[in-house]
């Protein structure tokens, strides 16, 4: 249903914060700005990927309302995909 016709979906391939700048809320602020911008442009879903070992990122995405998709990347088995319905 995410990719149904005429549905606007925004895909985030990669978003990162340098290790020396982490734990300052920068990732959260960037993510919130991105979600707000996509909403203003009529996007109905945001999909992103992260590494399953990126525990802090996964916790952040859950707090922002993303749900982990039950899909697997055949080429990169450690990737997880997340969906936010706006």
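Q: What amino acid sequence fits the structure above?
A:
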């Amino acid at each position: 249903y995410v990719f149904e016709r005429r549905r606007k979906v925004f895909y985030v391939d990669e978003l990162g914060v340098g290790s020396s700048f982490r734990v300052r809320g920068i990732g959260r602020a960037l993510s919130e700005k991105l979600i707000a911008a996509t909403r203003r442009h009529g996007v109905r879903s945001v999909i992103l990927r992260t590494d399953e070992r990126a525990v802090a990122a996964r916790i952040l995405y859950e707090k922002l309302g993303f749900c982990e998709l039950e899909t697997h990347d055949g080429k990169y088995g450690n990737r997880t995909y997340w969906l936010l319905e706006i």
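Q: And what stands out in the fold?
A: The helical segments are 26-40, 55-63.
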